[in-house]
Structures are given as structure tokens and as C-alpha cells.
Amino acid sequence: MSEKKSMIKRGLLSFITISAIWLLSAAAIKTQAETIEFEDQAEEQEDPASRAEKSSAVNFKVKRVAEQYQLEDLLIQENFGTIASVTIKMPKGLNLDATSFSLPTGWTTYNEPGSDVINYLLTQNNSPQIVQNTLQQLAFNIEKEELTKGKISISISEEDISAWTDPNGKTHYYKYVKNSLPWLEAYSAAKKERYKGLTGYLATITSPEEHTYIYESVAKDTGMLGGTRAVNKNGTKISDVASISPVLSNYNLSKDDWYWASGPEAGEVFFIGKKKPGMKPEDKYNGWTPTEPNNHGGSEAFLQFAQGGVKDWNDLENLGDTPNNRGYYVEFSEYGGQKEIEENSYSADVPQLVKVVYQDQQDKEKLAEEVIISKNFCIGDAYDTTSFRKEITDYELVGIPTENGNYKNEPITLIYTYKRKYLTLHIKQVVLNTSPDLVIPTKGYATLKNVDNENPTEVHSIYEEINLSLPSRLADQEEAGNYQVVKNKTNNFYQVILMLPEYYQNMGYVLTDVEAIHDVSQKQLGIPVMNSLEKSEYWLTLYIQPNSTSFRPYTWNYQLTGMN
User: Fold this and answer.
1) Buried b / exposed e across 442-452, counting CB within 10 Å, b at 16+?
2) In the chain, what are the domains?
3) Which helix (H) or strand (E) holds 496?
4) Which one is predicted more confidently, 185 or 37?
5) Closest CA relative to residue 377, chosen from 31, 2, 64, 22
6) How far apart are CA 152 and CA 63, in angstroms?
7) What does pTM read for this prediction?
8) Fewer beta carbons within 10 angstroms: which end of the chain, N or C?
């Protein structure tokens, strides 16, 4: 082998060796990179909330203070940069208290007072520290307690981003891009914009309220909107695709239908006609200047906005940098499965009340006013309702809820359950001065009446009547019958009316609220009356005795009462 060939061979071997080493190194680097990527993903899956919190540009928590919610421990990253816009979102039951903070010079909002989205555009006093100091003062008034559940969200941006809530509660974000692109290029450029995880699109305006808001908030100059009457050569509409051809000759401009080409309204026709007067489809909004559209030059097929400081619409050619086109308007909203994410923003749950309810076990009637145990708390704070147990007249507490816990983002109702107390009666009939010629009854009969007055002569209403069968005894020492009656909720007087057997007369009664052997010498005449509000247990002895010495057995009453 010649020396030249030997050198070539050695050089080739060296090249192969170096190439092999390089390939192995590259594989190792790739493997290492894949491993690192996998480890990063695994770490993120382990604790995404923690990672998100660490990287959040804004952080705070919400505290309930009387009839307001306030922000605590609010911080903004010191190195965030100049802040151009701040957006605050809140549940519908809250209103931002405009008196709770001093609005710095250069902060402007175009949202209606009472809106659940308030957006500020900042031209001065917009350093992270000044914005933090301002937002720390925020307070939210409670307008409807039942609608306070949800989150308070604060977003900051280095761009002029405005925010508006439509009648359905969906939030829309808008920005103006000062770049004089023709409409076909502006369409694709808008589609590349991202905000809070949402894909941008040339703005669509579907109501006079939205029209006014965009004009007042971000309309810095004339620019393109998402409306057109241009269609593809095959006759199909441009329909929210990610990008389109910028070549005008690829489109048909002869159609009459003005429609939205992107966003959630893609394909919806809002006006028919190349020129006024045209026709407006029912329930569709358009905001043309009174003399527009006019299809000047025969190729004005694209929607333009805010020309000459006027908010109304104009039709325009697919032109770039002209006095009539200085940029385009981009909108962001949730549609097509997209969900807004936290991006340079933070959302904190609104802590909810804990209330105590006192309830009848049987019919669920509320027995006392419900109680809000506190109006000063944060999520996670502990509560204890032991001191809220309540004694309710004529009721017994039979159900106690878990009385210790922590405030949450859901309302908590703790129910103390009660059942009505019973009126317990011990009643017997005692026969005095028995006669060998007269049957001695072994049972007595009476009616228990729930009435409206303690004085028997002034009773006007009877609410309940219960027939009682009583044991009939011959002496006070003998046992009485026992009865329990659920106390009436509104009337607490009870009478006992004795039914007398034939040839017997009522000799009076002895009534006590303590257990004792009754003494006939203490008897009273009249109708015994018990007050269930004062006592829950009574002992009653009813006395009878024969009223004659001459008897006629087998009378109808004897037959009926079984005393023959």
C-alpha cells in the first residue's frame, strides 16, 4: 500500500471514529434532554398549583369584612415592567366600591359602574409598585349575597388590553395593533395573537353596547374589523381558519352578504348589499356610517372602523398603509372549546358565610331566625358554633350538626334539629261514696280540648279534641292513666271535660304539677285547665259520686256504656 493510500485510510478511520463519537454524543445529549424534559413534566404534574403560584405576576387573598370583601396580602412582581392595563373580574353579586381607593392620574375605565368586569387603561402611575399600592385598597360591596360565590380575578398586562362582559356573562378582551396591514394579512396576523390562552381574531361587533365600548376604550386610530363580503373562489366563506391567502385574486368580491369571517360569530351575515340601503337580517347588528357601505371603486369588500375619529363603520378595499387604515382590532374570547387561563393574573375564591338554622324535625319549619355566625373571615379560618345552640320553648334539641370546621368557597348551613315537647298527663277518675245498688264504673271517659283561653267562660275557639279513656278508681292512692300529647304550636291551654255516667255527678278535681297523692279535701269545682307553656307535666284526679238513691237499671245509657 502506498504512503498516500495509507494516509487516506488513516484519515477515513479518524473521520469514522469522530463521526461515531459525535453521533453517540448527540444521542446522549438527546437522551439527557428528553430525561430533563420528562423530569420537568413530572415535577409540574406533581404540584401544578404551587408552580403556577410561584410564577404568578399577581397574588392576593380575599377577606370578608362586614358587608364588603377586601384584598389581603396583594403583591405584584417588582420586575414586571410598565403596566398598561389592569382587569378586575368579580362575581355578579359584588360591585367594586369606587370610594374605597383613590384612582391615580392616568387610570381610565370605560366599563359601566356595577359591571362585574372593570378594566383600567394606564398611561401614568403604572409602575408595579404604584399599581400594587392602588389595588391593595380595593373593596367590593355586597349587592346580592346569594350571588357572591365565585372568584375575584386581577390581570395585568404590558399591552393596552380592554375587557367587556356581554349580556350572557362572557368576557371579551380587545387590543388595537398599530400595523397598517391589508385586511387579508391582518386576518392571519390577528389569528397569531394570544392572550390568557385565547386565540385572537379580527374583532366582531354584535351590539351597540360592544361597539361603544371598543370605540371608547381601545380605538386609537382607524383599523380593520372582522367583517367582509369576500368569499373563496369556490364560493365558500372564510370561516375562522388559522390563516388565509393574502392574494386578493384568490377571492370573489361580487357577493352581497357581509358576514363575520372569524371568532364565535364566523359565518353570520350581518348586512346584505354592496351599497346602502341594503337589508339587515333580523336580530343582527350593524354600525355603518349613514352613507356606508358604498363600494367605492367597486372593490370595497372589507370592514373598517373608527375612520376620522368617528366610531361608525366603513367599507374599504384590501389596502395597507393609507390614511384609512392604520392598524387592526383583535378580540379574544372563550369559544370553540377554548378556556381562559391565568396569565399575568391571579384568581382567589370569595369566602362564603356559615349560617345556623333552627328547624323542626317533622315539618322542617324554621323555629327561630337563622344566624350568620360571623362576617369577618378568610377561607381556611376556623369556626365553632357551639355557643349558637339554642333552647326553644316547648322543643327538645335532638340533632346537633358538626359544630367545628373551616370557612370555604361554598356557603355552609348548619342545622340544629328539634322536636316538639310533649304535654304529659296522669289522669284518673275516683268514685266517692259508692252505693251497693249502683254499678261502680271501671272506666271513665273524658275529652281533652286545646283552647284559646285559660278561663273556661271565655273560650272562643277549640283547636284540637282528643277522647280519653281513664282508669276509674276508688281511692286517691291508686294508679292513674298516663297520656302524652304533642304540644300545640300556637295555643297552650288544655281543658279536661269529664263524661259522667248515668246516676253520677261531678264532685270536682285536684290538679297539681308535681307528683303527689291527691287529697279529696283539696278538690275544686269547675273545669280543670292546664297551661303547657308553664309546665310540661300534670297530675289530675277527677271525682264523681252517685247523685241518687233510686235507680232504674237497663236504661239506654247503661246499655251504651256497658254498665248493665
Assistant:
1) eebbbebbbbe
2) 53-165 (2.60.40), 171-333 (3.10.100.10), 354-420 (3.10.20), 422-561 (2.60.40)
3) strand 493-499
4) 185
5) 64
6) 11
7) 0.72
8) N
